[in-house]
Design brief:
The chain has 151 residues and is mostly helical. The chain has seven helices and no strands. It has helices at 3-16, 20-37, 49-72, 76-90, 99-113, 121-131, 138-150. The longest helix is centred in the middle third of the chain and has 24 residues, at 49-72. The chain is globular.
Protein backbone atom coordinates (compact mmCIF):
# COMPACT_ATOMS: atom_id res chain seq x y z
CA UNK A 1 0.00 0.00 0.00
CA UNK A 2 1.37 3.40 -0.92
CA UNK A 3 2.13 5.95 1.76
CA UNK A 4 -0.52 8.34 0.47
CA UNK A 5 -3.29 5.72 0.66
CA UNK A 6 -2.13 4.64 4.11
CA UNK A 7 -2.14 8.26 5.35
CA UNK A 8 -5.62 8.88 3.91
CA UNK A 9 -6.94 5.75 5.65
CA UNK A 10 -5.31 6.80 8.92
CA UNK A 11 -6.80 10.29 8.59
CA UNK A 12 -10.26 8.74 8.25
CA UNK A 13 -9.62 6.56 11.32
CA UNK A 14 -8.42 9.56 13.35
CA UNK A 15 -11.48 11.58 12.31
CA UNK A 16 -13.84 8.80 13.33
CA UNK A 17 -12.04 8.37 16.65
CA UNK A 18 -11.97 12.16 17.15
CA UNK A 19 -8.20 12.17 17.72
CA UNK A 20 -7.55 15.85 17.04
CA UNK A 21 -3.81 15.86 17.84
CA UNK A 22 -3.08 12.79 15.71
CA UNK A 23 -5.16 14.22 12.88
CA UNK A 24 -3.05 17.37 12.86
CA UNK A 25 0.16 15.35 12.40
CA UNK A 26 -1.39 13.16 9.69
CA UNK A 27 -2.59 16.21 7.77
CA UNK A 28 0.94 17.63 7.89
CA UNK A 29 2.22 14.42 6.27
CA UNK A 30 -0.52 14.53 3.64
CA UNK A 31 0.33 18.15 2.88
CA UNK A 32 4.01 17.27 2.41
CA UNK A 33 3.09 14.38 0.08
CA UNK A 34 0.83 16.60 -2.02
CA UNK A 35 3.66 19.12 -2.35
CA UNK A 36 6.00 16.31 -3.41
CA UNK A 37 3.57 15.21 -6.13
CA UNK A 38 3.97 18.60 -7.81
CA UNK A 39 7.74 18.77 -7.33
CA UNK A 40 10.48 17.85 -9.78
CA UNK A 41 10.98 14.53 -7.97
CA UNK A 42 7.56 13.25 -9.04
CA UNK A 43 7.29 11.05 -12.12
CA UNK A 44 3.79 11.05 -13.65
CA UNK A 45 2.33 12.21 -10.33
CA UNK A 46 4.03 9.40 -8.40
CA UNK A 47 6.73 10.07 -5.82
CA UNK A 48 9.55 7.52 -5.32
CA UNK A 49 9.58 5.86 -1.90
CA UNK A 50 13.08 7.15 -1.16
CA UNK A 51 11.89 10.74 -1.59
CA UNK A 52 8.89 10.09 0.65
CA UNK A 53 11.14 8.67 3.35
CA UNK A 54 13.58 11.57 3.22
CA UNK A 55 10.67 14.01 3.42
CA UNK A 56 9.25 12.24 6.48
CA UNK A 57 12.72 12.32 8.07
CA UNK A 58 12.86 16.08 7.47
CA UNK A 59 9.44 16.51 9.08
CA UNK A 60 10.55 14.56 12.16
CA UNK A 61 13.80 16.51 12.36
CA UNK A 62 11.92 19.83 12.11
CA UNK A 63 9.54 18.79 14.90
CA UNK A 64 12.41 17.73 17.17
CA UNK A 65 14.39 20.94 16.57
CA UNK A 66 11.30 23.04 17.24
CA UNK A 67 10.65 21.09 20.44
CA UNK A 68 14.23 21.76 21.57
CA UNK A 69 13.71 25.49 21.03
CA UNK A 70 10.46 25.39 23.00
CA UNK A 71 12.16 23.54 25.85
CA UNK A 72 14.94 26.16 25.94
CA UNK A 73 12.25 28.83 26.22
CA UNK A 74 10.48 26.94 29.05
CA UNK A 75 7.42 26.14 26.93
CA UNK A 76 7.03 22.44 27.66
CA UNK A 77 3.37 22.52 26.57
CA UNK A 78 4.35 23.45 23.00
CA UNK A 79 7.32 21.07 23.01
CA UNK A 80 5.02 18.17 23.94
CA UNK A 81 2.84 18.88 20.90
CA UNK A 82 5.86 18.86 18.57
CA UNK A 83 7.27 15.65 20.09
CA UNK A 84 3.87 13.95 19.81
CA UNK A 85 3.67 14.89 16.13
CA UNK A 86 7.20 13.59 15.57
CA UNK A 87 6.22 10.26 17.12
CA UNK A 88 3.19 10.01 14.80
CA UNK A 89 5.32 10.75 11.73
CA UNK A 90 7.96 8.20 12.80
CA UNK A 91 5.35 5.43 12.48
CA UNK A 92 5.64 5.72 8.71
CA UNK A 93 9.45 5.53 8.63
CA UNK A 94 11.38 2.27 8.36
CA UNK A 95 12.75 0.87 11.62
CA UNK A 96 15.84 2.81 12.64
CA UNK A 97 19.10 0.93 13.13
CA UNK A 98 20.63 0.84 16.60
CA UNK A 99 24.05 2.36 17.25
CA UNK A 100 25.59 -1.13 17.61
CA UNK A 101 24.10 -2.30 14.29
CA UNK A 102 25.42 0.85 12.63
CA UNK A 103 28.93 0.33 13.99
CA UNK A 104 29.03 -3.25 12.75
CA UNK A 105 27.73 -2.31 9.30
CA UNK A 106 30.09 0.68 9.06
CA UNK A 107 33.11 -1.47 9.92
CA UNK A 108 32.11 -3.77 7.05
CA UNK A 109 31.77 -0.80 4.69
CA UNK A 110 35.16 0.55 5.79
CA UNK A 111 36.87 -2.74 4.97
CA UNK A 112 34.90 -2.94 1.71
CA UNK A 113 36.13 0.47 0.48
CA UNK A 114 39.55 0.18 2.12
CA UNK A 115 39.13 3.17 4.45
CA UNK A 116 41.92 3.51 7.00
CA UNK A 117 42.26 7.19 7.85
CA UNK A 118 39.98 10.21 8.39
CA UNK A 119 40.74 11.29 4.80
CA UNK A 120 38.66 8.32 3.60
CA UNK A 121 35.51 9.55 5.35
CA UNK A 122 33.94 10.69 2.06
CA UNK A 123 34.23 7.19 0.57
CA UNK A 124 32.59 5.60 3.59
CA UNK A 125 29.84 8.21 3.89
CA UNK A 126 28.99 7.91 0.19
CA UNK A 127 28.33 4.19 0.48
CA UNK A 128 26.75 4.43 3.95
CA UNK A 129 24.28 7.18 3.07
CA UNK A 130 22.93 5.11 0.17
CA UNK A 131 22.86 1.86 2.10
CA UNK A 132 21.23 3.25 5.25
CA UNK A 133 18.77 5.62 3.57
CA UNK A 134 15.79 5.96 5.85
CA UNK A 135 17.24 3.60 8.46
CA UNK A 136 19.75 5.92 10.12
CA UNK A 137 20.36 9.62 10.60
CA UNK A 138 23.38 10.73 8.55
CA UNK A 139 24.55 12.90 11.44
CA UNK A 140 24.83 9.83 13.69
CA UNK A 141 26.47 7.83 10.88
CA UNK A 142 29.12 10.52 10.31
CA UNK A 143 29.82 10.71 14.05
CA UNK A 144 30.40 6.95 14.22
CA UNK A 145 32.56 6.97 11.08
CA UNK A 146 34.73 9.78 12.52
CA UNK A 147 35.24 7.79 15.72
CA UNK A 148 36.05 4.57 13.87
CA UNK A 149 38.50 6.22 11.47
CA UNK A 150 40.25 8.11 14.27
CA UNK A 151 41.15 4.82 16.02
Amino acid sequence: MSLEIQINNDIKQAMLAKKKDELEALRAIKSAILLLKTSKDAVDGQVPESVEISTLQKLVKQRRETADIYIQQSRQDLADVELFQASIIERYLPKQMSREELETALKAIMSEVGATSPRDMGKVMGVASKRFAGQADNKVVSEIVKNLLAQ
